[in-house]
Design brief:
Elements: E1 6-19, H1 36-48, H2 51-54, H3 56-59, E2 63-64, E3 67-68, H4 71-76, E4 91-96, E5 102-112, E6 115-123, E7 127-129, E8 152-161, H5 168-178
Antiparallel strand pairs: 1-6, 1-7, 1-8, 2-3, 4-5, 5-6
Length: 180
């Protein structure tokens, strides 16, 4: 595979899971670290200059005046799983990183039983060179060291080849290697 291989619709999705409740602290009682996932996502927004993530605490229903307060959330759960105000499913944003790759983003915060979950996707609608894949995770910001999710996280990389190939496994391996 050549270094000038082009791909289209690349995306990197982070699925992160964080403990909200600890049964040893009482039924439906949020842990001391329950807000840690949302705080780390706000820090990511600060690092990357993404206003929508920086202001995440103002958008989530489990915050009042930027202070974590899960009581409001408990009033609507389980009728509503999303942690955004009624009718909203995600926070959409645009981000142009320093390399000039124009990225779009989508963040969907949820509560699933006793955990918080988030789907954070960074994607480009452009056709890019495969060597630019690392720009989907600028500054390696989606790493487990930056996103503090107590129950773990999964990264999903997606890209489509511009042309038909003889061996898609080579493309897949190259994408993983180039993504950082």
């Amino acid at each position: 595979m050549t270094q000038t291989q082009r791909i289209r619709n690349p995306s990197l999705t982070l699925y992160a899971f964080h403990l909200r409740n600890d049964i040893s602290q009482g039924a439906e009682k949020a842990t001391v670290e329950a807000s840690q996932l949302w705080e780390s996502l706000a820090d990511v927004g600060q690092t990357l200059g993404i206003e929508e993530l920086q202001n995440l605490r103002q958008k989530l229903i489990c915050y009042e005046n930027s202070v974590y307060n899960p009581v409001v959330e408990e009033k609507i759960y389980p009728q509503q799983l999303t942690l955004l105000p009624s009718g909203e499913e995600s926070i959409d944003f645009r981000f142009i990183n320093h390399s000039g790759v124009d990225l779009n983003g989508l963040l969907s915060p949820f509560r699933l039983h006793d955990i918080y979950a988030v789907d954070l996707t960074l994607f480009s609608e452009d056709t890019i060179d495969i060597t630019q894949l690392s720009q989907l995770d600028p500054k390696n910001i989606l790493s487990s060291e930056k996103i503090r999710a107590s129950l773990g996280q999964t990264l999903l990389l997606y890209a489509e080849p511009v042309e038909a190939l003889d061996d898609y496994q080579v493309l897949a391996d190259t994408c993983v290697a180039q993504s950082g």
